Amino acid sequence: MDNIQDIFNKWFARWQITLPDKNLQERQKGSIFQAGWSINFIFGIENNLEYLEFYAIHRMTNDSHTVIYENGEIKHLECLNPPLEYSSPIDENQREHNKKNRKVKEELIDKSLL
């Protein structure tokens, strides 16, 4: 788990954000609200590897949905798309955009990341 904590802390070092020790020790999901960031995270095990999965939101950048495995592997998952500008009626691009966002949002809610 030290590897996961190191990677997460380096990822957000610019904003002095660190993974809370208590959450890490207890493998307890949590949230961090700091320096304009909203970061929700959960712990799990996949293929006998522990991991941290987080969804990070900041208004000045795109969302980030990431998994950090204890072996150092990093996997980027789907995020909600930023809003599209459009005029009525809703065109096919907007329909696809909305459909994808609904799917990703449901997955994030199911994992308690949103």
Describe what you observe in this structure.
By secondary structure, the protein is of the alpha+beta class. The protein has a domain at 2-79. It has three helices and five strands. It has helices spanning 2-11, 21-26, 92-110; strands at 30-34, 37-46, 49-58, 64-69, 74-76. Strands 1-2-3-4-5 form a five-stranded antiparallel beta sheet, covered by helices on one side. A hairpin with a 2-residue loop joins strand 2 (37-46) and strand 3 (49-58). The longest helix has 19 residues, at 92-110. It is elongated. The model has no long low-confidence stretch (mean pLDDT 92). Residues 104-114 have a biased composition (Basic and acidic residues). Residues 87-114 are annotated as: Disordered.
List the helices and strands and how they pair.
Layout: H1 2-11, H2 21-26, E1 30-34, E2 37-46, E3 49-58, E4 64-69, E5 74-76, H3 92-110
Antiparallel strand pairs: 1-2, 2-3, 3-4, 4-5
Summarize the structure.
Residues 87-114 are annotated as: Disordered. The chain has 114 residues and is an alpha+beta fold.
